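Retro notes (design track)

What went well: tokenization of the new backbones is finally stable.
What didn't: we kept losing track of which sequence belonged to which structure.
Fix going forward: every design gets posted as structure first, then sequence, in one message. First example under the new rule, 307 residues:
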């Protein structure tokens, strides 16, 4: 009797609760509303003509009792011909790659230490990583201006101890830009690495040691390969937003550190050329989707790892 009753309850729950297709459809619907539709809107604007009365551009007009569809490819051709945009895209990719590598170099040891420390200390270390998020992002970047400026904290300390005779020019240079971006995005590298490393089975390292591997060999041949999914996830979380970063290059960078975020701002709000700005945005998104697809392909086998 209990078995029949449980079967009826299970059958009833299966009818009431959403099915697998519905559950999968929810995130796809969310991505469609929050990414695909805005992307299509920006693409539509990029193919339209500039019209002061319509900041979104004109794409479909009514002429001689008929609708005329217009698609202007001149914006994309201009991007390909103008050296400024090419150099800006390359600069954005370069600084994003440098930031990602430095975040990985600094974040991996910290995440490894967090994963191997006592369980009672892990919440404290995790809180230390997340603590900067409690402060405004803009205030934290402004703080670096006070540290790196000619009369800032760093130059003052170096002058006081006699290591330098004149202040170092650190602000508005590639160095200040990289420092600010690494500082801002380092937690995004540490957290995925910690989540991955904390689940690793330490008996694998013991087995490697029994087979004659040194601690360094065990680290490179066991720990690093098994943490590949965490490395890829952290690299994606750092690399992708760094490409379109605007605040840090604006506050800490200089003329040599022009990135695509500043170009977009100028096109949208200075030149008021929304079609051109939208074309620049579409190309930037495609540049982001390419490494994202490559990372996703590499993380495919790692996603099936048994934990």
């Amino acid at each position: 009797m209990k078995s029949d009753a449980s079967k009826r309850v299970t059958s009833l729950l299966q009818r009431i609760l959403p099915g697998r297709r519905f559950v999968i459809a929810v995130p796809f619907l969310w991505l469609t509303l929050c990414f695909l539709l805005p992307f299509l809107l920006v693409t539509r604007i990029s193919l339209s003509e500039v019209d002061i009365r319509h900041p979104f551009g004109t794409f479909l007009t009514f002429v001689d009792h008929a609708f005329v569809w217009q698609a202007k490819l001149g914006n994309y051709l201009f991007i390909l011909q103008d050296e400024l945009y090419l150099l800006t895209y390359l600069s954005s990719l370069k600084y994003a790659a440098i930031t990602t590598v430095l975040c990985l170099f600094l974040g991996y040891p910290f995440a490894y230490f967090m994963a191997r420390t006592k369980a009672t200390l892990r919440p404290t270390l995790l809180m230390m990583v997340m603590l900067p998020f409690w402060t405004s992002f803009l205030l934290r970047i402004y703080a670096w201006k006070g540290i790196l400026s000619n009369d800032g904290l760093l130059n003052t300390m170096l002058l006081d101890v006699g290591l330098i005779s004149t202040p170092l020019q650190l602000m508005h240079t590639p160095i200040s830009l990289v420092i600010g971006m690494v500082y801002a995005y380092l937690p995004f590298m540490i957290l995925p690495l910690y989540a991955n490393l904390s689940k690793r089975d330490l008996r694998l390292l013991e087995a490697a040691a029994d087979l004659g591997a040194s601690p360094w060999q065990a680290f490179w041949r066991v720990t690093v390969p098994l943490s590949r999914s965490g490395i890829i996830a952290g690299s994606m979380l750092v690399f992708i937003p760094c490409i379109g970063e605007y605040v840090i290059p604006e506050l800490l960078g200089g003329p040599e550190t022009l990135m695509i975020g500043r170009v977009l701002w100028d096109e949208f709000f200075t030149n008021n050329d929304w079609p051109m700005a939208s074309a620049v945005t579409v190309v930037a998104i495609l540049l982001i989707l390419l490494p994202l697809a490559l990372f996703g392909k590499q993380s495919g086998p790692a996603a099936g790892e048994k934990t």
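Added context from the reviewer: The radius of gyration is 26 Å.
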